[in-house]
Amino acid sequence: MKLRNLLPKDKEKILDILKKIHEIAIFKKEEVECAVELLDSYLHDHNQIQPDYEHVVCVDNCDNPLGYSCFGKVPLTDAVYDLYWIAVDPIHKGKGIGKKIMNFIEQKLIARKTRKLLIETSSLPIYLDTREFYKKIGYLEISRIKNFYSLTDDKITFEKCFY
């Protein structure tokens, strides 16, 4: 496995990964649409629409995407980043791909003197594995906004500081 920047040829496989995650009821339709919108803006206009978004892809030895992530600098901050998306092909879940992607992003951010990386997620039971993953790799829950996404779905923010 290796990591590299997103290339136009990766789009179809990334769309397939997002579709699989939607089919197992983790990503909602609207979430997939948002992820696709960010992919398209990055691939077509990334220096114009949102120059701070970055996409990292983890690929196998044949250069096929196994997972990807989108992250970017939070506007109006000096050194804070958000993780917008991390998605791993469900057939490769549990093989260290997500951890490898996160380590790669963190090393990039540390080299840039980033202060912290923030991650927002849902409190729904389907996201329990996601929340546990973030905790396992050193992220702390720093806030919870009750009934944010819906009446029974809180927004949870995780943080890792690099200073």
List keywords for this structure.
163 residues, alpha+beta, seven-stranded mixed beta sheet, 7 strands
Describe the structure.
The structure is a single chain. With 163 residues, this protein is an alpha+beta fold. The protein is 33% helix and 34% strand. It has four helices and seven strands. It has a seven-stranded mixed beta sheet, with helices on both faces. The chain starts with a strand and ends with a strand. The model has no long low-confidence stretch (mean pLDDT 91).
Structural class: alpha+beta
Q: Could you say which overall geometry the principal axes of the C-alpha atoms support?
A: globular
Mean pLDDT: 91
Main pleated-sheet profile: 7 strands, mixed
Tally of helical runs: 4
Order of helices and strands: EHHEEEHEHEE
Percent strand equals: 25-35%
Q: In order across it, which strands form the biggest sheet?
A: 1-2-3-4-5-7-6
- Helix fraction by DSSP (H/I, runs of at least 4): 25-40%
Which regions contain 5 or more consecutive residues with pLDDT less than 50? none
